[in-house]
Design a protein that fits this description.
Elements (H helix, E strand, L loop, with lengths): L3 E6 L3 H13 L4 E7 L3 H11 L6 E2 L2 H6 L6 E4 L7 H9 L3 E4 L7 H14 L6 E3 L7 H11 L6 E9 L2 H9 L12 H4 L2 H11 L3 E9 L30 H7 L4 H10 L5 H7 L16 E8 L4 E7 L6 E8 L2 E6 L4 E6 L4 E6 L10 H14 L9 H20 L3 E2 H5 L5
Parallel strand pairs: 1-2, 1-4, 2-3, 4-5, 5-6, 7-10
Antiparallel strand pairs: 7-11, 8-9, 8-15, 9-10, 11-12, 12-13, 13-14
Helix pairs in contact: 4-5, 5-14, 9-14, 10-11
Length: about 425
């Protein structure tokens, strides 16, 4: 079979290092034939990597989608506030679409995309959102256990998303998601696919949503005395500050995967230069960020299941930790360790399940998603595990959680979505 061909819109981290890498490693499944990227250096480097000729290398997505169709699929990898229009243009041009989460940073545009796709998508045409956690062996195994009745009747889900103190400082203090008015609220940008997992595991629509959270650490009031604008300029608190950019990007091994993003952001691709000339080198207490550094979301589902999602910057690891409680047993799991422990209450037998998953993006989720999408396109539009309607639901759950957090209220979900005609 010939590989599925794709155009990439946005040659940043996801476009280059996830989908681009997959195409290079699996040339028989996916081949990238065109790119739209406004940054000339990124566009040129991406084109060289994939052998894209100049006439298929575009500075803007409007020009790309105005041209005759150049591939089977379009991979939309722009920033949160730039998903809506290229996704619709790609669909209207006849491409299968894989859209990075979130669908949009407004509920109105999320609903509009879903309605447009429901009404006008051609038969067999795929429009999928990147809920990568659905494709991880970890969550697939947990879902299998629940479906088999391993814990009896499901009662409660406790779910902890540990962002990692260094990852939060990189993305939500110094990086592209530091201003929720320009990108997305934390619960949407970081956790719409965690909400999707909770909805999937609960097996029921959500009934009500509560949420609390705020920004407590990364504020000007907490800036050390004498701290310069850039850490590399010599900060008196350099040795004691865990968020010191020089330490994180040069010496702290767990943050190594973020270094390529910092270097890619700088035109010289030199880390020392980047730490003095890009936002990634700035003092975390002087970045003008407004995103909560911790948030808790409470969900009550129509079938009686209750769930609690905790999102926090203040963790030493990047992982998801789950505790699933039922009438006849419980499941405890750690995504980073790919370890699941099932306890049977009748026998108190503990079964440990350790999954053999390569150390790669989202613990196998990125590879699983990309491969499934390519297979779906090659198979003529096979159904993927997450439908657009399910993706929309998790996004609206995130918007409801943000409303609950800001207004200190309990949000009735049906009432929340009523104005959108749902």
């Amino acid at each position: 079979m010939n590989p599925v061909t794709a155009v990439v819109v946005g040659a940043g981290d996801r476009g280059r290092h996830v989908y681009g890498t997959y195409a290079l490693e699996h040339p028989g499944e996916l081949r990238i034939t065109a790119v739209a990227e406004p940054d000339e250096v990124r566009r040129r480097e991406f084109s060289e990597l994939h052998g894209i000729p100049p006439e298929r290398s575009f500075a803007g997505y409007e020009e790309l989608f105005a041209a005759p169709r150049l591939a089977d699929a379009a991979l939309i990898c722009t920033q949160d506030g730039m998903h809506y229009r290229p996704a619709l243009l790609a669909k209207q041009a006849g491409y299968h679409v894989l859209l990075e989460k979130p669908i949009s940073n407004t509920p109105e545009e999320c609903v509009r995309i879903w309605k447009d796709c429901a009404q006008t998508t051609a038969e067999g045409q795929i429009f999928a959102v990147c809920h990568v956690l659905r494709y991880t062996p970890f969550f697939l195994q947990i879902k299998k256990l629940l479906d088999e009745g391993a814990v009896g009747k499901l009662v409660n889900l406790q779910y902890e998303e540990d962002i990692g103190f260094y990852h939060f400082a990189h993305s939500y203090v110094r990086g592209n998601w530091r201003d929720e008015t320009a990108s997305s609220p934390l619960v949407l940008a970081k956790s719409c696919h965690d909400l999707d997992i909770l909805r999937w595991l609960a097996g029921s629509p959500v009934q009500s949503v509560t949420s609390t959270g705020s920004l407590v650490e990364f504020t000007p009031e907490n800036r050390p005395a004498g701290a310069p604008e850039y850490c590399a300029q010599g900060c008196p608190a350099a040795q004691s500050c865990p968020y010191n950019a020089v330490r994180l990007y040069r010496w702290f091994a767990p943050a190594g995967f973020l270094r390529q993003i910092v270097e890619m952001e700088d035109p010289t691709h030199d880390l020392d230069h980047a730490l003095l000339h890009t936002g990634y080198g700035r003092c975390v207490y002087a970045c003008g960020n407004n995103v909560p550094d911790h948030q808790a979301v409470g969900l009550h589902f129509e079938n009686g299941v209750d769930a609690q999602l905790t999102i926090t910057a203040f963790s030493g690891r990047i992982t998801r930790i789950v505790h699933i409680m039922g009438t006849r047993g419980e499941i405890q799991g750690d995504l980073a360790k790919n370890l699941i422990c099932l306890t049977d209450f009748a026998t108190m037998k503990k079964t440990r399940i350790r999954l053999d998953v390569p150390a790669e993006g989202h613990h196998g989720g990125d590879r699983g998603l990309t491969g499934s999408f390519a297979a779906g396109v090659a198979g003529g539009g096979a159904t993927l595990p997450t439908t657009l309607a399910q993706s929309l639901e998790s996004h609206l759950m995130a918007f409801a959680a943000e409303k609950a957090r800001r207004e200190h209220t309990v949000v009735d979900f049906k009432e929340f979505i009523r104005p959108f005609g749902l």
